[in-house]
Amino acid sequence: MGHSLKSSRVLFLASCGVAALTVPMAAFAQAQTPAPAIEDATVTEIVVTAQKREERLQDVPVSVSVVGSAQLDRQNVGQISDLTRSVPSLSSSGVTGATPAIRGVSTNGFTRSSESAVSVVLDGVVMGRTQISELSDVERVEVLAGPQGMLFGKNASAGVINIVTKAPNPSRFEVIAHADIGNYDYQRQRLTVNLPISETAALRFNLNNRDQDGVVRNVLTGKSKKNSSYGGRGRLLWEPTSNLAINVIGDWQKTGTNGLQPYVYAIVQTPALASRLAACGVIASLHNEENCSEGDNKPTSRDVSYGLSAQIDYTLPGDYVLTSITANRWREGGKFGYFGLGGDTDLLNTNILSTNLAPSKIETFSQELRLTSPKGEKVEFVAGLFFSDTASHDLTFQGGGLGLLPAPLKAGRGGVTDVYQRSYAAFGQATLHATEKLSFIVGGRYTDEFLKDDAVAFTPAQIAALGYIATPAFSSSSVSGRVKTDNFSWKLGAQYAFSPSAMAYLTASRGYKGPAVNDQAGPGVDPIIEPEKPMYYELGYKGALFDGRVLATASLFHNKVDNFQTAVFVPSTPANPVPGFAQGNSPYMTSKGFELNLFGKPMRSLSLNAGVIYNDAEYAPTFLVACNSEQAKGVGTCSAAGTTRPVSQVANVPKWRLLVNGEYTRPMGALEGFVQSDLTYQSSTDFNPSPNPVTTSRAQWLLGGRVGVRSFDGRWGISVFGRNLLDNAYPYIVADPLGAFNGGAGRSYWTTPSMDWHRSFGVTLDARF
What we know:
By secondary structure, the chain is mainly beta. It is 5% helix and 53% strand.
């Protein structure tokens, strides 16, 4: 493990080159999909595992969006955040657009013990806080809307992103290579080798690499932001007998940047800050791409995640299947022991707050044991036990002159946080086929959880030893919390088959997302954050069209999330005389609307995927948020305490999303030509729950496309692609987080340019033999 990331990448690229040279030019290939592929099959043949058993997609009484490997490739979907261009119900938020939301419900917490409301599951393993980002050698992605904790591990109160990678194939040796290269120094490579060992065993290896320049440039150093990711996966499949299958999977991924912050100033209305930026050569605007940061630091912006899992499936007499999934996952981010410049928060060449560090280590162990009944019985069921154990160690440190201390003096604050989470659960879901057409669904899950969160602030002596000054006006508090809780969540429903190709369903689900501890709470603030409990209703229809070539789905949904975890107003008390905001529970939030989807092959030469969602998401009427930087206390809608009613639509939740993508093919002699296109529309959103026109995003239109040729046997292909062809610049976020430091008057707005900030082009080569 002594090789550096750079040398490892060179070795990986060299191996890709050697593999490519072993293939004749006529064998450059378009990868992938074992028959019947999702894009080639009739919709009646598509199989998913949305209910922990293999079922036809059109028979599943759950809102499921399926993205197959070919669609992932043609849309250049290489990361989980890219899936928003393929699934209408999936949106994203956050500084880098990496926080997923399904039908408007997401994670609004910033405490270490908060877990995502959208659970990511990789080959049956719940990722939890050891999240992954890259999608490589993936068979399909299933996005399930609504509470899914019944069958998918823990939490999953908003939904699940279920990632299924490609399994080893004992019947054939195969090498698959894929390479993208484009402007802005974009490059992405994948190399997959399928290696049969015997008639009953095979290995599959995948390596992936991605590099891309970001948009932001630091005028102080002359460097532009760069993003990189490098990793791999190995998978062993062994079927020693006809009733036993063993899957062992190991994966590793390293992501990071060259240390540049992704933020720039977009709007500055304070003369002090404007003059500082001008002196550095930066002019704030909505299209600004430059900052003047002295706090760049590469070691602080690296993230490594890796894991190992083993799944054993044993078929018992009577075709019952007993499944065991054992997994251990690790994630490490940042650099412990470093307290210098990094994570610059003021984005200036003066040290106002140029140190903002948060290295972390997380380890999760999970064990699932479940029993699946055979198909075709009067009663079909899945039942099991689940256990998870997570421990994390985090360090936070902030430092700078705060615009008050003369150089070189710096104030500092920080501490360490240790979190331990343990969860036991017993679950089961059954379908009773009352008649050939009518079925009833019943499920339940009992969960027992324990959470311990200890945040210990650095002492003045410890801060001084690091070269900083401790001051009461800029300090951290020690917080400790313990929570032991249990919960019963449930699901009821009915399903009616009008014909083998059309059905309707009605379900009601009570979900659950575990408690958290606000380890950043101040004096007099209760650190315990209560569990979220969504009450979810869905009425849906699925029907096949064009002789089973197209599936149409429609659903109405209503979701009320009680104890919604978010930032809440904390009034003044004798112990805490200054009112403020802390992570806590809103009474509830609601999300309601409809979703329509079409996908399949209406004609032999045309593949089509289209979807639209309308989502009316609202906060509770009694919920209050902080007044924004443009408001004054006691004036207009801003109360004397500094609170106001939130925006009418939940922050970062678009009311409308529309997606259309497809591929048209045409024979060209011995070759096949193809044209692909995808269009995404998203209505305007508010980045902040406090009403402020400055932090409102305009409606978004993103257009992408691809043109190319390939061999009919799929052994080679070449294409040209483009993203954001309309050249519309959209940010991930607009916020005013540091008004108190930047001139003291607020109204200094950041923006984070997205990776699709500019029009981009590239070339793709595919090879397979």
